[in-house]
Amino acid sequence: MRKVLCSPGSYIQQEGAISSLAEEYSAMGESGVYLIVDPFIDERYHDDIVSSFDKDSVPYDLAVFGGECSMTEIDRHREHVGSADAIIGIGGGKTVDTAKAVGYYTKIPVIIVPTAASSDAPCSRLSVIYTDDGQFDHYLPLPRNPEAVIMDTELIANAPIRFLVSGLGDAFATYYEAAACVKSNAITMTGGHATNAAFALATLCHDSLLADGVKAVAAARKGLRTPAVENIIETNTLLSGLGFESCGLAAAHSIHDGLTALEPTHKYLHGEKVAYGTLAQLVLEDRSLDEMKEVFDFFRAVGLPTRLADIGIADATDEDLLRVGELSCDDAETMGNMPFEVTPKDVATALRAVDEIAQEI
């Protein structure tokens, strides 16, 4: 049996790290860097980002991210990489996924600098590709993980709290999807089965969320960088990233992808929709009432969705939810990693059931 665990070359978590990017780059290249930067981050932190490159006389070209991780956006950057021998993606999940995809197509190593702990995308050898109007299109598996993932804890602690909470939602799916994949003996996106080490990381991810999630959100609301915030940054990014990639995805993320077909969900973050998908997975698995109450209580405490209204589809019809189910159960999705058959009607029923259960527990 082939078992695989993948990880980035380095994971660095440190306050003020965004001001020393040239030093990190110097270990892998010398001809220059192509920077893809989220527009808000560029506006607010431009001088910090470029300071080390200017100080060390490292050539760079800074391009502002266009807003959607689509093939149109990826191709735009591919055309402008020039002689750079490394790409640095700075921003949220779609910015860093674009950087990874550009690195793949240009065969250039990538450094990822997330500006929020909002998803587990940074560490993975995967980009999620959307259409230009924001609907899920396809997964782009990559041959290797980023050369480095650099987390500036000071910057992340001051990011809008919604991003950190979204990261909690994305990370919370990790253990439950990993458990489903281990039970079904699924082949993960790494091309192998889960290792014991990967499942241990997924389990630690779950335990860390319950131990520090509420405390971290309370501190981060005030821009405070406490030990709980530090732990949750690592949990949302590293533990969840390694856990999902090397154990596998299942119902929660495939339901997220299906939800993107409903336009009102587009204004909600990835982790917010994944969180609702996790609740639906718990319904599909018929988890105990005590366990479901623990999860619902945690989601309410940190501000994650528990009702259809919380992801913009309070008025979703049965036909709408069946459409989500059909997309979630597509052969290209990860629903097949569940240890039992799931039909589109099962998904539609689970989505509705979550909304009803939320009113009772």
Please give the count of helices.
13
Architecture of the largest domain in CATH? Up-down Bundle
CATH topology call of the largest domain: Dehydroquinate synthase-like, alpha domain
Quote the distance from N terminus to C terminus.
Answer: 42 Å
Q: What are the secondary-structure elements, in order, as H or E?
A: EHEHEHEHEEEEHHHHHHHHH
- Average pLDDT, rounded to a whole number, is 96
Looking at CATH, the homologous superfamily of the largest domain is Dehydroquinate synthase-like - alpha domain
Number of strands: 8
What is the total domain count? 2
Strand order of the largest sheet: 1-8-5-4-2-3
Shape: globular
The residue ranges in which pLDDT falls below 50 over 5 or more consecutive positions are none
> Percent of residues in helical segments?
40-55%
Q: What secondary-structure arrangement, pairings included, does this model have?
A:
Blueprint: E1 10-14, H1 21-25, E2 33-37, H2 39-55, E3 60-64, H3 71-78, E4 86-91, H4 93-106, E5 110-114, E6 126-130, E7 136-141, E8 148-152, H5 153-157, H6 161-184, H7 196-220, H8 227-247, H9 251-259, H10 270-284, H11 289-302, H12 318-328, H13 344-357
Parallel strand pairs: 1-8, 2-3, 2-4, 4-5, 5-8
Antiparallel strand pairs: 6-7
Helix pairs in contact: 3-4, 6-7, 6-8, 6-10, 7-8, 9-10, 9-12, 10-13, 12-13
Describe this structure in words.
- With 361 residues, this protein is of the alpha/beta class.
- It folds into 2 domains: 10-157, Rossmann fold, CATH 3.40.50; 161-357, Dehydroquinate synthase-like, alpha domain (Up-down Bundle), CATH 1.20.1090.
- Helices cover 50% and strands 12% of the residues.
- It has 13 helices and 8 strands.
- The strands form 2 sheets. A 6-stranded parallel sheet has the order 1-8-5-4-2-3, with helices on both faces. The chain has a two-stranded antiparallel ribbon with strand order 6-7.
- α7 (196-220) runs antiparallel to α8.
- The longest helix is centred in the middle third of the chain and has 25 residues, at 196-220.
- It is globular and about 60 Å long.
- The chain starts with 9 loop residues before the first strand and ends with a helix.
- The mean pLDDT is 96.
